[in-house]
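Quick question, first post here. What does this chain look like in 3D?
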Amino acid sequence: MTIASFTRMQGSTAEQWAVIGAQTAANQGRVADEVLELLRTLEGIVDGFAVDQLTHSLQTATRAERDGADDELVVACLCHDIGKAVSVANHPRIAAEILRPYVRDEVTQTIAAHQDFQGRHYYAHFGLDPNLRDRYRSEPWYGLAERFADAWDQTSFDPDYPTEQLAHFEGRVRAVFARPHVF
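> Answer (accepted):
Ran it through. Tokens below.
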């Protein structure tokens, strides 16, 4: 395996970056491996819900798939709460940033704002404004975020819902994370 010999980027060459770029592209599959592993860690997070966070994510993706969502959106539904493995309070932004290079902007924005959209269904219980989603009303992705929150996300805490397993979505996860839209 060829490796770059520079110790500072300012001393690098185009040839070295060609090697780095080729090896990075050849190893792109590890991104999906890591995402799948991070999703598996959600199985251990229940936090008082009727289902663990992996099951919730699988139900959200299952509902989206059954509703005809495309691959990027189904994978985003699967990954929308992946940030809870790191920080529950900041999970929407963490998930959105993981997805950002691989999905279209409206999907990234939907995931970044999903908690405020889902808040319509529970924010009042915490003394928060349940209409925080209204601040996004002029955004072109508002309708998608509303559909995500109301039809798929907030309905996905049912232990009896016939839910697809992670293996069912693995091919889609690998396909979406194999091709970054941006570097």
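The chain has eight helices and no strands.
The mean pLDDT is 95.
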